[in-house]
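Structure first, sequence second, as always.
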């Protein structure tokens, strides 16, 4: 790492440390430490997320956007108020979990046969009516396994059974679809462009598909998983008759098959969550002239290199020639060797119980930030 000039610019782009510190909290603590050791520095805070929990909050702040609240239906058809982000320039960001997420249901209410993504479709429709023509969906945390029927049904697509009756679009309906009428979709979608943040590579069907892998956490027992997967195979065949894009592909099983419907009927393009977030906040331009970027997450491990914030930020820094370090709540031996990452600074000062580390997370993070910038100060004076 090269020496740092007297008036450096530092970019802070950390994920949240789940359950303890938000992305904004980390930037605040890093800023305190940076200004202590480099009083003339400029600190640029960029809230980060990888398409999961907190993505809307991070991007609304980073893009200077606003929230829009809408009365929609939850996975079981109950009325709730959900919100999404307006990012300016006709762009909207919608988390599937906001209207169709597992956190909206208590454990005993989880029922993938009856759960529907219709509420997410209502959010999409509201965004279009609000003038948005560039819509990004973040797929994490869904409670549904309906193949995205509910979502696109809110946009005018009709799913019909053998008697010509319209289906409501839930998991139990997957195997009952014999025809799909998408003729009203164009009018409802109004030419909007759709993008999907997707960080899994599960196909729509089979042992690695939506039902088998994600169904159990949504309340499906073994018999229900088999029923859902059989229905999904039938549904995929029907979807293929009207599709404008691929139906089954690596990632099609994300969010109970919502990814498949977005591809097949909305022509959505796909990217990893962190790649899309970096693009939306124009991260490359924020690195111009930076002396250092500090990223981080709750735990750095073997999964970090697979589309998480730290690996995405480090890769962007490597392309820009900006040194990057990570301040993390914990780390494993599998976290070494992340391309573009100069070093990892764990926050614990000694071995300690997890509950103690969580309780003292802010103090420990502040101490780690101070250690980092004190070393940088020493390095900047080294001759």
């Amino acid at each position: 790492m090269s020496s740092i000039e007297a008036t450096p610019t530092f970019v802070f782009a950390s994920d949240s440390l789940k359950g303890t510190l938000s992305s904004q909290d980390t930037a605040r603590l890093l800023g305190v430490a940076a200004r202590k050791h480099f009083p003339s520095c400029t600190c640029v805070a960029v809230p980060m997320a990888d398409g999961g929990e907190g993505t809307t909050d991070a991007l609304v702040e980073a893009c200077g956007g606003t929230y829009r609240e809408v009365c929609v239906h939850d996975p079981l058809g109950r009325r709730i108020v959900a919100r999404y982000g307006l990012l300016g320039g006709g762009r909207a960001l919608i988390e599937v979990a906001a209207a169709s997420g597992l956190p909206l249901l208590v454990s005993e209410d989880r029922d993938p046969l009856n759960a529907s993504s219709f509420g997410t479709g209502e959010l999409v429709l509201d965004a279009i009516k609000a003038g948005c023509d560039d819509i990004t969906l973040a797929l994490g945390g869904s409670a549904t396994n309906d193949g995205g029927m509910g979502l696109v049904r809110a946009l005018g697509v009709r799913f019909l059974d053998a008697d010509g009756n319209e289906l409501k679009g839930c998991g139990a309906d997957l195997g009952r679809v014999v025809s799909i009428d998408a003729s009203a979709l164009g009018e409802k979608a109004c030419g909007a462009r759709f993008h999907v943040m997707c960080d899994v590579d599960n196909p729509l069907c089979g042992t690695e598909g939506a039902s088998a892998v994600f169904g159990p956490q949504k309340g499906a027992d073994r018999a229900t998983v088999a029923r859902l997967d059989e229905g999904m195979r039938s549904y995929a065949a029907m979807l293929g008759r009207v599709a404008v894009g691929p139906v089954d592909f690596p990632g099609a099983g994300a969010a109970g098959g919502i990814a498949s419907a977005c591809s097949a009927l909305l022509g959505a393009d796909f990217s990893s969550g962190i790649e899309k977030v970096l693009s939306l906040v124009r991260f490359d331009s924020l690195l111009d002239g930076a002396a250092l970027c500090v990223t981080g997450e709750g735990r750095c491990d073997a999964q970090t290199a697979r589309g998480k914030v730290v690996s995405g930020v480090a890769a962007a820094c490597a392309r820009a020639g900006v040194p990057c370090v990570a301040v993390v709540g914990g780390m494993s031996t599998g976290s070494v060797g992340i391309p573009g990452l100069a070093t990892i600074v764990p926050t614990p000062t000694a071995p300690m119980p997890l509950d103690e580390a969580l309780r003292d997370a802010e103090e420990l993070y502040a101490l780690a930030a101070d250690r980092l910038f004190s070393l940088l100060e020493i390095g900047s004076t080294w001759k």
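Margin note: The longest helix spans residues 222-242.
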